[in-house]
Amino acid sequence: MDSGEFNKIAGAVLGAFLLFLLLGFFSEQIYGVGHDEVLAYAVEIEGAETAGAETETVDLAALVASADAAAGEKLFKQCSACHKMEEGANAVGPYLWGVVGRDIAAASGFSYSEALSSKDGVWDLEHLSAFLENPKGYAPGTKMAYGGMKKPQDRVNLIAWLNEADGSPIELAAAPAETATDAAEAAGAAAETAGEQAATAAETATEAVSEAAGAAAGAVVEAAGEAAEAVQGAAETAVAAATGAFADASAEDGAKVFNKCKACHTLEQGKNRVGPYLWGVVGRPVASAEGFSYSDALKGVGGEWTAAQLDAFLADPKGFAPGNKMSFAGVKDAEDRADLIVYLNEADGSPAPLE
Length: 355
Fold this sequence. Notes:
CATH superfamily of the domain at 59-165: Cytochrome c-like domain
Shape: elongated
Radius of gyration: 37 Å
Largest sheet: none
Distance between the termini: 130 Å
């Protein structure tokens, strides 16, 4: 090989090396990223999306009043792939038997993430609703992969069912104040008027006695007789109105109203569910269904389930016996209550007179 050929080869090698260096330099200028520059893509940080978002205010207590536990049972199908409703039966997620009112991250035998185990408090209405709406936002770093239940009423329905499923429900929220019925308002007004009339009569009698004992005594006796007749007439009218309400009631319509009760009660003797069986309930002593564990609130009521007692309880369970375990808000329509009571009275085949 002569020197000319050698020089050509060496020049080619040096040229290739120089080209390689130049390509590296220009690539660094075009594509290189310094420490102070921003990357061309952003990594989404878990929970960041909800951190700055405004939270819509939801009146959970109002939703509890219209909660549908039966609908909640259907919604639980979304959870059943990972959770069981058997005490102690953990799966991918912890068991949910008795979860309402339980301490957060307290299911026996389940290994919780630090995100949940570090939280204080109990699974009450507010905490459960917030967690179900957005698990990752509620406890960033939680192992739960569920995307969340966005509709507030769906969350409350599910929580209501979870609350009742273990047979010992707690009060989820104070029931909203109910407007008194026309009959109750009329009775209250009548009582107030009667009290005012009685006070006025007493004052008049006192003055009359001081002026003329004999004449005043006669006037008082006459006024008392008239008042007694008026009270008796009012009582007879009230009884007639109550009897008439049940006389016009329809057991067929009551059977439709009973659909609201089926999630927790049966009409089979001795078969209790979340609530006691209602076979033969009319005329039965209060809190006496065999085999059912009643709250102290109902045990302390005493007496029998008369039509009047049932009507008052169905109108406002929490107001009738504060502290009882029944989470149902009540049957607000007086005709619906009358229809339901007539249906329950006839269902066992031995109806009692309703007065």
